[in-house]
Amino acid sequence: MRFIYFVIFLFMGCQDTKSVPKKTLPNKTQNPEHSSAITQQPLEAPFLLNDENVMEFFLDYDKQYKENKVRISTDYGNIDISLFEATKFHRSNFIYLTKKRYFDNTQFYRVIDNFIIQGGNSDDQKTLTKRKKIGRYLLPNDHKKGFKHDRGTVSMPSSAVENPYKLASPFEFFIVQKRGGAHHLDGNYAVFGKVIRGMDVVDKIAAVPTDQGDWPQANVYINKVEIIE
User: Fold this and answer.
1) pTM of the full predicted structure?
2) Are 106 and 121 spatial neighbours (Cβ–Cβ below 8 Å)?
3) What is the spatial distance between Cα 222 and Cα 111, in angstroms, rounded to a whole number?
4) CA 154 to CA 116: how far, in whole Å?
5) Cα 27 to chain center, whole Å?
6) What integer is the mean pLDDT of 141-152?
7) CATH numbers and ranges of domains, the chain
8) How much is the pLDDT for 165?
């Protein structure tokens, strides 16, 4: 029986009744002139991240590391994502976790056709272990940048822990697959990127059979996430 370590639910209004789960820095990675993906080097914070140090850490990180395009590799194909510069904490967080190889071998564990696919978790103990080695923290719901939950946008779900500001769970993300967008989510969740290639792959994943908890009947693995620019 599957056990999800972090259960995140988002209850929607309108006519849609579906849900989504709610200072020392290393050297920069150099971008090869002719390469489809930047070579990844593990980056280590000099401390475990927590709610007290995470904002300052990612503020410094944003100033030094400007990578903003990543590739998600799955058995269904690749999904290329551009991360928004305006959402600096969320972009830096995603780049940092990518360099730490946190997302490798996690799953798209919550899939709702014509709505969202959500990834960054798994039923493997190794995922929880990786989180513990990075730290425990939340990110602000930076929804005031004006980005909408259009089809293909990448957003960050709220923490499973109830909080009045809908602080975001930094280890997970969802991609809006719904045609026409999911604008009833606007203002509640932080959009921080968009798919620039591979929406056909998103559609394939969204169409897989799922159980009653929206978990794919056959696991959909994120084989790896890598920086491409």
Assistant:
1) 0.80
2) yes
3) 13
4) 10
5) 24
6) 85
7) 51-159+166-227 (2.40.100.10)
8) 52
